[in-house]
Specification:
alpha+beta; 2,3-Dihydroxybiphenyl 1,2-Dioxygenase, domain 1; 2 domains; five-stranded mixed beta sheet; four-stranded mixed beta sheet
Length: 150
């Protein structure tokens, strides 16, 4: 028996537009919508600490089955945004493997996201040769794209 983590169940992102987020994750990233719903009330307020936490949500899953929860809170515009810099304290990112990083970056940029720097190959260590790029979207969500060596 463990007293700590067993497995990562999902990752969640607060978004300004559920429709735009679903479109990005399905069209640009190749995920599928698993389900949609609405949440709110005492339970969600007690769990999240968000006052008046009315929320629309969707679960999208990667081709390998990893789930991402997208949450559009009704009061989101009053609650602040994620840090813009990948190096800011509290900034987070999700890393996603891609087959061709140049094609993935171009597709993501066509959906209104931007590359933070430039694609670079990891020079040494256990992931040497893996090409990586940081992409950031309008809601401050950062994705690290990773193309393993061929």
């Amino acid at each position: 028996m463990t007293n700590g983590a067993i497995v990562v169940d999902h990752i969640g992102f607060s978004v300004s537009s559920l429709e735009d987020a679903i479109k990005f994750w399905t069209e640009a990233m190749g995920f599928e919508v698993l389900r949609k719903g609405e949440m709110g009330g005492d339970f969600l307020r007690e769990v999240t600490g968000v006052a008046d936490p009315r929320c629309r949500m969707a679960i999208v899953v990667s081709p390998s089955g990893f789930p991402i929860e997208l949450l559009e809170y009704s009061t989101a515009s009053t609650l602040g945004k994620a840090p813009d810099s990948a190096g800011a304290i509290g900034a987070a990112h999700i890393a996603v493997n891609v087959e061709n990083i140049d094609v993935a970056v171009a597709k993501i940029i066509s959906h209104g996201w931007e590359i933070k720097g430039s694609s670079q190959a990891i020079p040494n260590g256990p992931r040497a040769g893996t090409v990586v790029a940081y992409i950031s979207g309008p809601d401050g969500i950062t994705i690290e794209l990773m193309q393993p060596p061929k």
